[in-house]
Amino acid sequence: ERQKRLLNRLKQTGDKQDIDDFWNETLGEKKFYKKRSGQFWKYLCTLPINLERYQIFNELNKRTAALMTEDNCFVYACIQAGVNEETIDHMREVIRVRDFPQSKVQEISDATGIAFNVTIGYFDNSKDNRIIHYIPKECETARTIDLLLVEHHYMLNERLPMTTYFIRNYKEILKACGGMNIEKQMKIYTKRENKYVVRYDRTTPLWDVMKTLWECKYFEPISYGELFTYTTDLYKQNLAPFKDLTYAPKYCVQLKKKAESKEVNKNKCKFIPEHVFFADFECSTDGFHKAFNICYDSEDGSVSESIWGQNCATEFLERLPDKSLIYFHNLSYDINFILRHMTEVKGTPIIKGSRTMQITGLYKGRAIIIKDSYSVINKKLKLFPAMFNLQTGPKEVFPYNYYSSTLLANDNRTGVISEACKFVKDIETFMKNIDSIKGCRIDENHFDLEKYSTFYCKQDVRILREGFVKFRNDLLKEFDLNVYDYVSICFIANKLFENRVYFPNGNLYDLSNKPREFISRCIQGGRCMLSDNMKQKSEKKLIADFDAVSLYPSAIARLYTLEGIPKVMKDEMLSTEYLMRHLFDDDQKEPIGEKFMSGFFVLIKITEIGIHRHFPLIVCDPELNPELNVPRSSNTCCLMYVDHITLQDLIKYQGVKCEVLQGYYYDGNRDLRIRDEVKKLFELRLKYKKEENPLQEIIKLILNSIYGKTILSPIESKITIVDDKDAIRYAIRNYNHIVKFEGLDGSDKTIFKLTKSICRHFNFCPLGVNILSMSKRIMCEVFCTAEDLGMDIFYSDTDSMHLYNEDIPRLAEEFEKRYGRVLIGKNLGQFHSDFAEITPGKQSLAYKSIFCGKKTYIDLLTNDLNEVAFHCRMKGVKQDVIALTANEMFPEAIQCYYNEDKGLMVPQGKFDKDSEFSVMKLYKALYDGQEIGFDLCKSCQPCFEEKFNFSITTKTSFIRKLKF
């Protein structure tokens, strides 16, 4: 009962101190539950002998703390055993926590070819010592290491040049033999005729030494404060930095190849779905959200049902057959109402950031997979009809805030029309809908809450089902890929390119550990900045939003994949002159003579900048350059990770001189087939777009998702959901890995977030880095041409720039002279003006613009018809909140509202383009340095807070303050 009370307190608070209380109070009683694992030794040895070889120290100071925390005890023991540096580096990379569980030793054995004999010792004699053998399963044993695991601490198990007699009698020996050096004292094994006898060949097993030290109380616990100072759950790489870039290929590279048979993939699946459903919850949004209705369709639409009431989620689960796959559009929301009712959650939920992508589990023995359709088709549901040529149905007018938990208590189905009208803007349509929905109107002033809700919920589910099934069928027909097998569009795009580009090559490799970590540091996202990092303003001179056409596909269309594996640069290679002399020419496919480098990735130190740019190519990463307090994109000498594309551009466009400190290079072929493949897809999309075939939308999604999985970051934590009856046992066994835990809302389960013990993550980062670098080259070619011509550019955000419209023809002419390509158009590699049109067919241009900061600016748009609208951006603030705040602050100015269909802010009343508008005055105030607060909860879309325990609430106020 006490443990249950403590668990409930933990579930309510999630407080770190509570977790420590839980550990201290419970572990003594439940010691046999504790998972055998490796941690650093939590005691100081007060006997003045040197046990540093076993990561045991006599005092805690800066030096010993560093030795204690640089490597976890398992790695430390392997170092003492003489394991080579390559294997040690691999261990450092994959072991992500200080507390290394014994269950993972087999995985290390399989990966390294080392056999481990682990002797487990118990100081309290609660169990007999025993030995567990770990032998590599898939390769020959390279060597064997004996380890001792005591008090969760791994040590190299060997014999020591000392005796237990010395330990037990140290104080007496010290008095009698004070002048004798300690090494000689340690060999004393008995006393004869009042004289101590030394035997120089005497040794003692480590276990006997440790047990005797324990029994003689020579181990003094490190105080809690010191312990807290020197421990951490997450094993960070910078605690054990790489001395060089050498690596063992068997640990760090993995050939891209097809699975040997379809059975291999089947074995990885929990089950193959036999039934597919599409569903949606309707919920009350006052306070904690509660589901009151669910509608669902089967894949072919033959089943189309709804369930009303507070038990709708459990009734839905009851109706599901075994091996069901269910899609929700925005699973991150809907999962809050269904997860608590599942009998068991299997495996690790796939959660990326705040987005829940997939959860697998059981309900009363029936297997269920729940997936997020938004992760595959990342478009709002209301866009599906236009995307997939679907019937839309009546306009939705729904009084969401009227459907409160109070109104719906006891599964009430009767609503008051006059009250509901207070919660809708379009009362006329609302009344028409009540009359048009069969059986919805009860009498003159009452309507059926269930029928009204179900009508619109079913309409949404039908649109989701028809759109998603259309997407799946088209994908199967065109690319032979089944969307049901994948969790996101990135995985679909990656599989397509594996089949068409990566696998056919046969010499492309995914990377892990050291080479992946180093090359990934060359990832530089799109450039988002104001000219010279200064606020900008323009009036009465037309500005265009000049956009690159499909920037990332355009970059891929100029690229290649690098064959082979990365090689460490030798000292003589570490200069820009050497690298540029030996790098392939742009369209070179194979090594020829001195041009043998197909690509490289290096750390450079910029020492000189020949050309200062308004939009610099140099990226000053504050983590790499903590001493520099400058904007991220700036004309500043600094350290920078770059690939060959970026280094070429730094030299060409900014006249950079630099030192090359270290790096990897490739000397295999460049495979150009990725160019042809992306061009085929782009042309196929244009063809389908011209035919108004919805398949063009699928190809567009794939084109924009090709590079995503190539630079996917390693996942260093995981979520596990455990029944409360097992939660105490689980918490004790995994204590050192737990980041946080809390009760799953409305259930008898507990959610744990843990750090992963071992991280084996492979990706194709060389291609991902090259794609991002080539995309910036595409932008640089235009930017630098414009700058060289003295043209003003006000703002850039990844694939676009704001510049004067009148400069574009001269820019295009000069660009064609320099690069031999036509700049303006709608093909890959070209640019076009891309402001949203106020009236279709009439080009919009900015008559006035104010740029306050990154992703915070406004353009007053106009056209040949002298119409006015506003293109607004403000990071983290919704468009309707911008309009509402502006109208409240400046009521005397012309009021504006957000038109979602146009994607523009539209003014009301009489005006011309030189009138005073509320939103322009708002941005002018920000430009002038005024701090303004925006209440994000005033949006017409509810402001939700999704909690760790899978509950969700509506916030009533959330102020974001901005000042530039």
TrEMBL record:
Residue span, DNA-directed DNA polymerase family B mitochondria/virus domain: 320-734
Q: Which GO terms describe its biological process?
A: DNA replication
EC supergroup of this enzyme: transferase
The highest taxon in the source lineage is Eukaryota
Identify a single GO molecular function assigned to this protein: nucleotide binding
What is catalysed by this protein?
DNA(n) + a 2'-deoxyribonucleoside 5'-triphosphate = DNA(n+1) + diphosphate
Family from the record: Belongs to the DNA polymerase type-B family.
Protein name per its UniProtKB record: DNA-directed DNA polymerase
Q: Keywords for this entry?
A: DNA replication, DNA-binding, DNA-directed DNA polymerase, Nucleotidyltransferase, Transferase
> Is-annotated flag, keyword Transferase?
yes
Which species does the entry assign this protein to?
Trichomonas vaginalis (strain ATCC PRA-98 / G3)
